[in-house]
Amino acid sequence: MVSRMSRTAVIVEGRSDQIALEALARRQGRHLDGHDISIVPLGGAQAIGGVRLGGICDVNEEGYFIRALEAAGLGVDLTRPDLERLGFYVCVVDLEDELIRALGPATVEKVIEGEGELRSFRLLQRQPVQQGWTIERQLRRFISSHSGRKARYARLLVEALDLAAVPRPLASLVDYVFG
């Protein structure tokens, strides 16, 4: 929730987005409380109507953000560059995809192994529906397959990142918020 004292509120789609941003800020030595910043998960992009803040979203939710920002009077016929000017950044596919691409599948598998879930991931890979999927898609499916796993892995994957290789939407939002 946004504190009454927060100067800045960052809107994200879900809890995993919130956890990833908090983890990145912490890793970079930035303190949300010290900057009066609150990160607010909406529980889905459709809930953004009427909010005038920065944030990140999945590519398939970009239209919801555009319509809400236009309805809030922040522009007409907004484009992605307009969104970024307003402090909103779009993930290619979603946050998990951004993190998996930044880390590479081998590193993500090591994170999964470190959590004792590599066997579960291998079982998922052997399912008939997973055959023919890229490993990146299989990893995204695995991370999204159980309640609470997205949020846990958002933190773990951000913690595994080389800070020089932070995905653009995530890095841009943190820079915007602390800028």
Please render the helix and strand layout as text.
Layout: E1 8-12, H1 15-27, E2 37-41, E3 54-58, H2 62-71, H3 80-85, E4 88-91, H4 95-103, H5 105-114, H6 118-126, H7 135-144, H8 149-160, H9 168-178
Parallel strand pairs: 1-2, 1-3, 3-4
Summary tags:
globular; 11% strand; 179 residues; alpha/beta; 9 helices
Structure description:
- The protein has a 4-stranded parallel β-sheet with strand order 2-1-3-4.
- The chain is an alpha/beta fold and 179 residues long.
- The model has no long low-confidence stretch (mean pLDDT 90).
- The protein has helices at 15-27, 62-71, 80-85, 95-103, 105-114, 118-126, 135-144, 149-160, 168-178; strands spanning 8-12, 37-41, 54-58, 88-91.
- Helix 1 links the parallel strand 1 and strand 2.
- The protein is 50% helix and 11% strand.
- The two termini are 22 Å apart.
- The protein has 9 helices and 4 strands, in the order βαββααβαααααα.
- It folds into 2 domains: 8-94 and 163-178, Rossmann fold (3-Layer(aba) Sandwich), CATH 3.40.50; 97-147, no CATH class.
- The longest helix is centred in the N-terminal third of the chain and has 13 residues, at 15-27.
Structure in a nutshell:
Helix content is 50%, strand content 11%.
Q: So, CATH architecture of the largest domain?
A: 3-Layer(aba) Sandwich
CATH topology of the largest domain: Rossmann fold
Shape: globular
Query: What percentage of amino acids are in beta strands?
Result: 5-15%
Topology, number of strands: 4
Q: How would you state the average pLDDT, rounded? A: 90
Distance between the termini: 22 Å
Helix content: 40-55%
* Count of discrete structural domains: 2
Largest sheet: 4 strands, parallel
Structural class: alpha/beta
Q: Radius of gyration over alpha carbons?
A: 17 Å
Following the backbone from N to C, one meets helices and strands in this order, namely EHEEHHEHHHHHH
Main CATH class of the largest domain: Alpha Beta
Q: Could you list the spans in which at least 5 consecutive residues all have pLDDT below 50? A: none
Question: Reading side by side through the largest sheet, how are the strands ordered?
Answer: 2-1-3-4
